[in-house]
Request: fold
Amino acid sequence: MIGLADCNNFYCSCERVFRPDLIGKPVVVLSNNDGCVIARSEEAKALGYKMGDPFYQVKEKLEAEGVAIFSSNYTLYGSLSNRVMSMLSHYSPHIDQYSIDECFFEVENLSSVTDDFLLQQYGARISADVLRAVGIPISIGIAETKTLAKIGSKFAKKYKGYQGCCLIDTDERRHKALSLFPIEDVWGIGRQIARKLDYMGIRTAAQFADKKESWVHSHFNITTVRTWKELNGESCISIEELPQKKSICTSRSFAGEGISDKDVVEEAVANFAVRCAEKLRRQGSVCQGITVFAWTSRFNENVPEYTIHDSLTLPIATNAQEEIVGAALSILRAKYPKPLADSRADRPDMSFHFKKAGVILWQISPDNPRQQDLFDPIDRSKQKALMEAIDAINRKNGHGTIRQAVQGTGCRFDLKREYMSKRFTTDIHEILKVGKKYFEQLIDAMKEKRGVKLDIELTAADLKELAEQFKAEYKQQIGEDFPSDPKTQLYEAIRAVFRSWDNPRANVYRRDNDIPYSWGTAVNVMPMVFGNLNDNSGTGVAFTRDPATGEKKLMGEFLTNAQGEDVVAGVRTPMPISQMEEKFPQAYADFVKVCDLLEDHYRDMQDMEFTVENGKLYMLQCRSGKRTAQAALKIACDLVDEGMIDEKKAVSMIDPRNLDTLLHPQFDAAVLKKAPAIAKALPASPGAACGKIVFSAEDAKEWKERGEKVVLVRLETSPEDIEGMKASQGILTVRGGMTSHAAVVARGMGKCCVSGCGEINMDEENKKFELAGKTYHEGDFISIDGSTGNIYDGIIPTVDATIGGEFGRVMAWADKYRRLGVRTNADNPHDTEQAVKFGAEGIGLCRTEHMFFEADRIPAIREMICSDTVEQREKALAKLEPMQQGDFEAMYIALEGRPMTVRFLDPPLHEFVPTEEADIEQLAKDMGKSVQDIKNIIASLHEFNPMMGHRGCRLAVTFPEIAAMQTRAVIKAALNVNAAHPDWNIIPEIMIPLVGEVKELKYVKDVVVEVADKLIAEAGSSMKYKVGTMIEIPRAALTADEIAKEADFFSFGTNDLTQMTFGFSRDDAGKFLGAYYDKKIYESDPFARLDQTGVGKLVSMAAKMGRETNPHIHLGICGEHGGDPTSVEFCHKVGLDYVSCSPFRVPIARLAAAQAAIKEM
Reply:
């Protein structure tokens, strides 16, 4: 089934979104230059106004009948159109926007539903949700074809009984709808065909649909035949098949008497030509014909008439604006009239006033393929790249950011728009009201003038004088009088609340707290009470328990003769809530009763605001209060002990993400409060760090050895920096996102990390950087907060995190109810021990490549890379084998029998080769090769796209001796530890990474099995082992049923799977994701929170297909998403066996897994 969503009276509805007082009142929207009526509300239609009515003819009538008049505001309409389309995309995986106010969409998962009531309800819900979230009423038609869906949307718009959705899903409904629908209104039936059909006696769509196909073929072309088929329920029209425009035109009428300045006319034509070229490129076309026209007014007797209308054909078809603009201006200049003063010496003031001008492109053809010219002097590939770059910059930064000089720097030919509304959604400067600071400055000046310190010391006369000053300030800032009408004031207050919902801070808050933008918001309007009425009044904020510690006691603050803002603004020092009892004993007694009542009702600690007016208590609002992680645990346990909630409720009421603060050092809160942040970047790994700046891993190690605390500052980190990262208090990077190398490794180590601070101007060579106007050198102190992303100058002391007894108690409850296992990502014994302390049930990802970067190991891996023969590689690998085996033995011991999944070598080999000249020379000496030979090897390892290059299982296919060595290290380690601890029953899990084809896995698995079986047999052991793969390529997910035949387990590597599904790098995505959040394309970082719609669909599909082929297959996830609560819940729903995450995120995953399970109970 296909749906069509059509916005009702779209332009008028857009104007009503920010003017709700116009709902139910007549509204019209005018064309460019306020020329004629182009949009009418239903109320305006009822008054008899027609499309195209000249405004000058109906202006007086419109004003007399109280019709709201608006100039066309295309910026606003385009923005609201994008919001509507964004909402529709939540209901369908595929949408086709047909016009600014119409969109076709697939009716997802409901095409097989026979209950038409469900389909109708589905459409009605979409209509209601779009109205609620965007404010635009839409009508929806659902049918088997696009043409029928359009007819359905017309009926839904016309008849209210459809509740916003008309369903045409049976022959009976189809015939009834077509019999009521005029043939001339059918999509695809033009005027000429409608007249021909009328001549044949066909007036309705039903009469046409009832004709035989042979008759239609004999009288009409193939396009009309397709329309006939669509009317009969046969889908055959695709949006993609609609023909390209045969011509493209951009024109404009000029305000007033027109333009007499030739330079301004040229500027206008140049801008029109640029817009035409942009449209041409947008539809992937080129043109060869160009027409320019311009004419003066025929109705102004005081100025002479003149018309320009000429064309030319370009030698080669193009869409480059410099060619199109040049051609357009050559036409204009050739035909532009000579100054009238040359022929009318008696009238030196007379000139031509051009009232309208435009550019038309024709002879349009597809850009690819296009006819080339052997003698073309222009490098078309460079020209195309330039146009793409200009278009990209203008899309990102706004139209006209990059422009040709002839376009001018400002618009000197602006439209007449006397009734223009504000661009509420795109231009903050048009909707900003007077800043609070202006009023505060006036209050401060008045207090200083009167010699008082507090607002309440000002007299009534002072306040009246201030009110007049406020009004004057408002008029000066806004340019109009402060509204005196109470209804207007109310609507302005409502708009202010809505504006606050869509400001940048609110958007960031929603993104951080998993609140979808599409939910929208609401405004409550309630009576006002006055805590500043007199000294028998007051206001306060209180919590039923201490939000910092969780202690059960009433905590809050109170002020007499004040409003709520005064309590939190810090202008006056409030009194503890307990002192309220002395001032207002009855109100306080009532308040204590209400506190008990609210906490008993909501079964949680409450945050309340209240006012006392003339001794009477008024409760303004209450909500479950925000609290520290420590307080959250204590409150949950206390509420269980008090019998108010059960264990499941206790587990569910704690935000898993808050546990981070319990596990990492934090800044001293008192000092932090006084310290301004110099910059803010991504909070990549929680905790706080303070130390001296160093710029290299080597310096970090050296400085730590001499007792210094350091913060490692890098452009970006790589595996070579691991030792320096370990030695540092924290890591700060200029580049990278939430799942960059620095972020992932820091979280695994429990180190504080702030990444992606692009404001830093780095000079690594000279060991300095600039930030916030200051130059920082090596050894200067800096402080970073990995929980917020804030960066501070100088020293801010840290305090160690403390974990109370409640933590273990809540975690025990979580383990009791969760089904999903929780493992950790760890590469060394230290991280393994830390994770086990936090409750990890094993290792889900051991990245073996991290073990190779130790100083005593990197030479061996480099020797292996630079070897020329298998024998040389095996010799080098033999040096690494005992080291790897020792690491695995230490980790198996730390795990005490818990499982460990070992991922074989994954990164491309170029990551291991030296970059410093001294290291290259040493490697050449060790290998008996020349320096140039080593440099040639290094150069040969270069890859254009390393993420998709020679890595993962491809290394083992190319060099099977690597897989053989790693297998020996894993199996020998397991055999040795199992021999020492027979009760542990270790079952090694060997993971082959980056498999996309089952034959790859089979080849590498055969190498592993041959080596493992031989070692186990030689040891006389019956030890079992598993060989599985990491699903991180979309093809692997799509062919999971085949891969499962060779795999004992799947581990979903969602970091790489996200990169390959979205088609962008996690390290580069930070450059543009901010714009995607601002434009509401993405609501969260897909590398921090699993994309359940796309990547999640691949995971779900692969899990289902894998289990169907191999019922015993073990399924887990080892990407960083394994520590994100919403992603953990998704993994639970899909039916995975475990999630794996960084050690310090293990408690978060345990709690999130329990919450997911409890939701289903």
Residues 512 and 594 are 32 Å apart (CA to CA).
